[in-house]
Amino acid sequence: MAITKTHELHGRRWGRNLGVALCLIGFAGLMFALTIVKVSRGDPMQAFDHQFRPEMDRTETEPAR
Amino acid sequence: MTDVSNSLSRTPEAGFGDYVALLKPRVMSLVVFTALAGMVVAPGAGALHPVEAFAAILFIAVGAGASGALNMWWDADIDAVMRRTAGRPVPSGRVAGGEALAVGLGLSGLSVMMLALASNLVAAGLLAFTIFFYAVVYSMWLKRATPQNIVIGGAAGAFPPVIGWAVATGGTSVEAWLMFALIFLWTPPHFWALALFMKDDYHRAGVPMLTVTHGRRATRGQILAYTVALVPVSLALALSSVGGPLTLAVAVVLNAVFLHGAWAIRARDEAVAEADAYAVEKRVFRFSLSYTFLHFAALMAERALSPVGLGGW
């Protein structure tokens, strides 16, 4: 018997690994596309993380005269 | 020397298709369609970028699939004794119960989080509540406890158009809740028609389906009652701001056919039904699938025709 003979199980594992890989690639592609869409539209790219960020403050202030 | 191939042929290792089956793809297709309809007919739909819309529908579908996986994990014991569900991945042994739970929980978290990031918190909150309602309220609390399981549990299947609406508008409105009510009231006659011709399945599984607890005669009456209650909701949706002449015409025809079928079911007894192998019940069950599909298709067609001045009121 040839040592390279594959069992049906190997085909199933290959199919499962390929399926997971394609899902991950698709997910990464979708995240990239979503990021491009949101950045292009000017959506805020930062969120609160326990530290004040002046660039996130949307309240308009009168410039000092 | 040990025969390795023999032991390998009995391995329960699942293929990719088994994990897909865990997500109930047929239910997912209805969820995708109704969520898409809710999103397309909503007032702010035009402002959505196609990538955002695609991502939102995908994550709603994944959330629905996750709740299906949780349902299969919890209901594996009763699925195993019902003919219709015995071949599902968990009862057939192709996927372990713990794996189904892990897939369900993992995809639930992922879908809600991603919908919040891709769309908004209202849509994500509604999706989280839908998953909780289907997996916990319906599967764990109601399904084995009350013959009203299908009625109340139907709410889980009715949320997708509301979520789709929330994706486009950031909130909900009376039109979205009319779409919810349409699916909510459609679910009992749809499932009870199935329960009538899946005779012994629910009885053997010990699920308190209306056919088991109140008898088949009462179930036939309830199918007619819910089909009658469906009519005003369907017409109200057609007369709302998302409807139009086309939707109204489609709604009138669909309700007339559904009512005729429900009346025919009500007029039959078990002896007549058994004589023709539940032909009417099976026909009404199949038609009920077209009922929802055509209703939502008409709403989307109405929206598609409105730019050329043909759709809408």
Verbal overview:
The complex is a heterodimer of chains A (65) and B (313). By secondary structure, chain A is mainly alpha-helical. Helix content of chain A is 52%, strand content 0%. Chain A is rod-shaped and about 75 Å long. In chain B, helix 3 (25-41) runs parallel beside helix 16 (279-305), helix 6 (97-118) packs antiparallel against helix 7 and helix 9 packs antiparallel against helix 10. Residues 1-10 of chain B have low confidence and may be disordered. Chain B is an all-alpha fold and 313 residues long. The chains are: A mainly alpha (65), B mainly alpha (313). Chain A binds chain B through residues 7-9, 12-13, 15-16, 18-20, 30, 33-34, 36-37, 41, and chain B through 5, 8-9, 11, 13-17, 19-20, 49, 51-52, 54-55, 58, 117-118.
Order of helices and strands of chain B: HHHHHHHHHHHHHHHH
Number of helices of chain A: 1
Number of beta strands of chain B: 0
Q: Sheet bearing the most strands of chain A, described?
A: none
How many domains of chain B? The number is 2
The most extensive interface between chains reads: A-B, 16 and 19 residues
Assign an overall shape of chain A.
rod-shaped
Helix proportion of chain A: 40-55%
What are the segments of chain A in which pLDDT stays under 50 over at least 5 consecutive residues?
Answer: none
Share in β-strands of chain B:
under 5%
Average residue pLDDT of chain B: 91
N-to-C span of chain A: 90 Å
The chain-level structural class of chain B is: mainly alpha
Radius of gyration of chain A: 25 Å
Low-pLDDT ranges of chain B:
1-10
Taking the alpha carbons of the first and last residues of chain B, their distance comes to 79 Å
In CATH, the architecture of the largest domain in chain B is Orthogonal Bundle
**Structural class computed from helices and strand pairing of chain A:** mainly alpha
Q: What Rg of chain B do the Cα atoms give?
A: 21 Å
Helix content of chain B: over 70%
